[in-house]
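#struct-help
A.M.: can someone run this one for me? Single chain, 114 residues.
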Amino acid sequence: MPARPFPDTLRQIRYGALQDELTDALNALVAECTKTNKTGELVLKIKLKPNPAGQVEVLDDLTVKLPKPVRGTSIFFATPEGNLMRDDPRQQQLDGLRTVPGGEDGEVRDVRSA
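D.P.: on it. Structure tokens below:
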């Protein structure tokens, strides 16, 4: 008897559920790898556990390692007390400088043209 092609056996593991999981996992992996331009990994392990009656139990383990997205960073300044602040505590404040609120609709106005 010739060797049975692997995809034929794969289709029958857990009544096709493994094949469906592999398809979904591969599609998700391709999407994430192309979106992040980073490497990912899909690993399928198949373990065979024979018994004296001639049966073989097939156990599968599917692991998917999606690439991690790039995370932003935040800049803080350390104070002498050991706290973190967004504003540099060593930076002097300029008197007379203030934040000007925008118009009600958020539109920027040019006061020179008034």
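A.M.: thanks! The mean pLDDT is 88.
D.P.: also worth noting: The helical segments are 6-12, 17-36.
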